[in-house]
Amino acid sequence: MNHKVINKILKGDCIDQLKFIELNSIDLIYLDPPFFTEKKHTLKNRERTSEFSFSDVWGSNDAYAEFLFNRISKMHGLLKNTGSIFVHCDKSGEHIVRSVLDAIFGSKNFQSEIIWSYKRWSNSKKGLLPSHQNIYFYSKTKDFKFNKFYTDYSESTNIDQILQRRTRDEHNKSVYDLNENGEVKNGGEKKGVPLNDVWDIPYLNPKAKERVGYPTQKPLLLLERIIELTTDENDLVLDPFCGSGTTCVASKLLGRNYLGIDKSAEAVELTIKRIQYPIKTESNLLKNGRDSYKSVDNDALGLLKGINYNPVQRNKGIDAILVELYEGSPVLVRVQKQHETLADAAKLLLKAKKTKKSKKAILIQTNETDLFDYVMEEDGLVLLKSPSLEINSIMKEKLTSSSIEQSDSGGDLRYVTSKSIPLGSS
């Protein structure tokens, strides 16, 4: 191997730069080529001081397929026999990518179609919201390197499925494995469920410290998973379309050697800078699970039944936002919490009203107030009592009731108005 190109970022088209790499020397190739979107992609960095752009306009399927084939065919020879290639794409060109990989590596060496799934902000386009991309995983041979990873069992998994061994009967049906006494055999050590091909890894949000402003930047967490699956420490990872340098940064953080190529001088400069000063955004979503983000008070939101609203997670001032706008601005809703004063609840809601530029905010009172707990009138703030509080207020007032008495003669009815009596009087 030419050690001069290890842990380097090369400028140029990969079809020219690949010839400087020794054959059978690469352990993993990851590439995120243009996606066949037929658009020019442009984005500025956080400081608005640099602009990154690239063209993804091809004109025809054949032109795009030829571009990929000419480059990926050269990458095939660079891989060790134990090596693998991961090609990132989406619905725009996945059919072309798959056919090119089958032609070069052979369908027999296709290992997985990984679905990178993520939650993203909504758009106004008609149809389903795109929330995944595809990563095709091929090996050079059947002797590819692969490190197994395990995940937790599903919440619906029966404990017997974990503790007891299973086998196949003569009909190839899964059954419990019994010993000579007819007892189910112990399942032995269980590490969990092998990692599947649908990866729920958060998309980099616009405020993530890791984000550098490159149009197609991928999260380090995604590349780290690919690298850990198919390489060991000191192995060599190649990214021939390195872009913002995520693959190279992930490789360095995991103790792998790297080699990046990109024809954009700006991309090369950005990659070198990221390698020198790597920043990684930890995902609390992956660490703690999606349920940890679910902080809505379902009992409180039950008061909004029959109204179209969106629940709000992890916000002290807002419990919900109505679907319908008021004078072009969002309508914020907050429900007074148990042991919370009305004044404190209003303070948090009004702060949110100001920051979210809302013209109407609704505070639902659920607790009785005392002499010192009150809310000053505020433009756009509506105070409503919860149904239970309304009922309690009514029951505490003096009740005026009418009773109907049936006369002793002839069954005539006459109305008798009782005196006003406080609740609980005899």
Structural overview:
The chain is 24% helix and 24% strand. It has 426 residues and is α/β, with parallel strands linked by helices. It has three domains: 3-149 and 197-286, Rossmann fold, CATH 3.40.50; 153-194, no CATH class; 294-396. An eight-stranded mixed β-sheet has the order 1-14-13-2-5-7-6-12, sandwiched between helices. Strands 15-16-17-18-19 form a five-stranded mixed β-sheet. Strands 3-4 form a two-stranded antiparallel sheet. Strand 17 (331-335), helix 10 (342-355) and strand 18 form a beta-alpha-beta unit. Helix 2 packs parallel to helix 3 (94-105) and helix 5 packs across helix 6.
Annotation keywords:
single chain, 426 residues, alpha/beta, Rossmann fold, eight-stranded mixed β-sheet, five-stranded mixed β-sheet, extended, disordered C terminus
